[in-house]
Structures are given as C-alpha cells and as structure tokens.
C-alpha cells in the first residue's frame, strides 16, 4: 500500500503520510540540503548513512556554541557531549529501561480504558486527539514524574507556547518562564518524600549523583521537551495510520501478535519527527561534495532517513507485517530518546485497546494536520462506530 491514496485525507496540503517534498528531494538526489530557521542557516542531511554520521561523529557536537541556543543550561543533557552527557543519562537510566516500562503496563491499560470510557460516553463523532492521544500520555507521564494533573497541565501549556512560537526572541522568553516554573517544582519536591522520577532527580540516594536545583531542573526539562508533546503526537498519528489503512488495521485485528512489529513500522513510516536536534560542526567536514565548516549548524532528518531505500525496501509502503528494525523515530546514537520504551508501550496499548473496545471504529470527516517546529500529526481524529 503506497502513500498515494490513503483514506481519511487531510483538508489541504501534502499527503498526510508523506515526508516533505524538499526533504525527499535531498534524499533522492543524494545531496546535502540547507534550511533557514529563524534566519540562521542549517545544513540538512537526509540519507540514513549521513544521519548516523552526524549523530555519532565527534566532529558534530551537541555542546558547541550555537546561534540557536546561546545559553547552555545546567542539566540540559540534550545539549551536551560525552562524558558530561553520560553523567545525567546515568541518573535517569533506571527509570527508562524496558523492564521499567513493563512495570507500567497495567497502569497504562487502565488509563487507556478510562479515556475510552469517556470517548464512548461522548458518543459517535468524538475526537480522539484531546480525549485519547493527548490525555493517555499525559496521565502516564504525570504518574511517572509524580506530577498532579494541575502541575502537568501548566507545564503542557507552557511547552506548547514555546513550540508554537514563530520568532526566536519569543522562544527564549517563554523558555525562561518555563524553566523558572520547573525550578519551583523541583524545589518543592526536595521537601517531600516520594518514589517517582522528579523526587529522585531532586534528591540523591547513597552512591547516586547529587544534582543541584538547576541541574535537576535541566534534566527534568530535557525529558519533558524530548518526550511529552512528541509522544502525544506519535500516538495520534499511529491511530490515524491504522484507521486510514483498513487492510493494515484488519491484519492487526486478525493477528494481534503483530503489534510489536506494527509499532516499529508505524514509527518508521510516520513522519512525526521530521527534524532531529541540531548539531554544530567543530571541524570542517566534506560530505557529498559540500564543505560543512566549523560553526555550521547541521540537522539530521530522522523521518527522511526512515524512508531511505538503501535501508528499508519499498520504504513508502505501510505494512504492519514488515520486519522493521533500526528506525530513526527516536533519534540515533548516544542521544537516542531515553523514553523510547515508554513511548512504544503507549502506542501499543492505545492501538490495541481502541481496536478491542470499538470493533467497527472508523474515521468521519476530514483530518486536518497540525505542523509545528519539526513535528507533524493530526490535529483532529473524529471517529464513529456502530451501524453505518
């Protein structure tokens, strides 16, 4: 099944399952592209081989000074290289193992059913995005971090303000406000007892790395920005993919044991994470006939790498039975998203429970798409069920 004629197409714009035309052109021509973000030039690399290079080679740094991010905050390990990056990853490693995700599975199923109870009560025409795709990850992430619903809602609102900004000055101002609020939460958790991630960041057991208030805030903020909004959009996008490809939905209904591979295929196929975190070149690099100079910004295009035919045969076909391994949905290298196992669990449970609870669920109406800074996903997913 190609991306040319999916059911439930958006109101306007490109096919909802296609990578950007400009990114496709870079991949097809085996070149390096360029892009101005807030007036600052960035090199774009699209092929899987080039993405691996940029995310693994020490000549491309996450810590070097950049016009985009002039202030490197304590604990913001996304903007660090090893070994400093490793120090903070080790602090949170135990909370994001596959085993830790599996311990959450029962809670995730219960949370999914609670969301679907309200969807069912609302009746046909309900929108899956706010009531399920966004709410389910929020419930799980808040529980993981030890946030009250009110605390989680305030953080979500502040993050959306940042990702929705259209100029660099606003991004910086809103980011300062976000960090100030997160710092207040960290300081409050230091005075409380708890067995959740935020309490552990704010304290130190015997043998653990103690973090300052600013460091704990930076780690907390890195995790939220890397995983909160993007996971919500991933869940909604995966539901859209299944509901608009009836033959793939049917295959999964018939063979639910395919779910783990289906999640990997959805992560590979869906261009939700269109851009990776920028790196800064710290030594001149010649790549595909282009000189990337010291100080240049470089962005790995994860979704485009996931459509590289050198790695994924017939890459524009969505097939839940595909033996997909090594996709770039969560990045690559030492900066690969630490919350990947939680995200996979959320997608798995969200898809399985929707199909089990509503055997004849189907989309109704248009599906408008929401495109932010590097993220792409459905803004609405209205469904119906029962007799046509």
UniProtKB/TrEMBL annotation:
Keyword Iron: yes
Keywords on record: Heme, Iron, Metal-binding, Monooxygenase, Oxidoreductase
Superkingdom of this protein's organism: Bacteria
InterPro entries: Cyt_P450, Cyt_P450_B, Cyt_P450_CS, Cyt_P450_sf
Any GO MF annotation of the entry: monooxygenase activity
UniProt xrefs under SUPFAM superfamilies: Cytochrome P450
Entry annotated with the keyword GTP-binding: no
Family: Belongs to the cytochrome P450 family.
Protein name (record): Cytochrome
């Amino acid at each position: 099944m190609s991306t040319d004629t999916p059911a439930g197409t958006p109101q306007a714009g490109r096919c909802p399952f296609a990578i950007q035309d400009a990114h496709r052109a870079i991949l097809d021509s085996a070149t390096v592209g360029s892009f101005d973000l807030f007036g600052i030039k960035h090199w774009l690399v699209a092929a899987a081989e080039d993405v691996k290079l940029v995310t693994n080679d020490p000549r491309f740094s996450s810590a070097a000074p950049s016009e985009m991010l002039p202030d490197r905050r304590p604990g913001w390990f996304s903007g660090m290289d090893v070994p400093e990056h490793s120090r903070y990853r080790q602090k949170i490693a135990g909370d994001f193992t596959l085993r830790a995700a599996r311990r959450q599975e029962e809670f995730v199923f219960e949370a999914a059913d609670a969301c679907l109870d309200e969807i069912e009560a609302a009746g046909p025409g309900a929108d899956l995005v706010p009531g399920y795709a966004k709410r389910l990850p929020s419930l799980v992430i808040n529980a993981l971090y030890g946030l009250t619903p009110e605390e989680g809602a305030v953080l979500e609102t502040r993050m959306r303000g940042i990702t929705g900004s259209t100029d660099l000055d606003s991004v910086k101002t809103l980011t300062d406000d976000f960090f100030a609020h997160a710092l207040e939460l960290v300081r409050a958790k230091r005075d409380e007892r708890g067995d959740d991630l935020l309490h552990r960041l704010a304290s130190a057991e015997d043998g653990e790395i103690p973090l300052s208030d600013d460091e704990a805030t930076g780690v907390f903020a890195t995790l939220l920005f890397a995983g909160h909004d993007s996971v919500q959009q991933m869940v909604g996008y995966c539901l859209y993919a299944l509901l608009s490809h009836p033959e793939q939905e049917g295959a999964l209904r018939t063979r639910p044991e395919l779910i783990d591979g289906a999640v990997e295929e959805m992560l590979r196929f869906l261009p939700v994470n269109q851009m990776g975190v920028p790196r800064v070149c710290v030594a001149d690099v010649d790549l595909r006939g282009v000189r990337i100079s010291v100080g240049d910004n470089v962005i790995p295009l994860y979704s485009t790498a996931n459509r590289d035919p050198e790695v994924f045969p017939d890459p524009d076909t969505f097939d839940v039975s595909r033996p997909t391994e090594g996709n770039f949905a969560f990045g690559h290298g030492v900066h690969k998203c630490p919350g990947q196992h939680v995200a996979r669990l959320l997608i798995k449970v969200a898809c399985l429970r929707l199909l089990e609870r509503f055997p004849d669920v189907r989309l109704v109406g248009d599906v408008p798409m929401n495109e932010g800074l590097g993220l792409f996903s459905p803004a609405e997913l209205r469904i119906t069920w029962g007799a046509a």
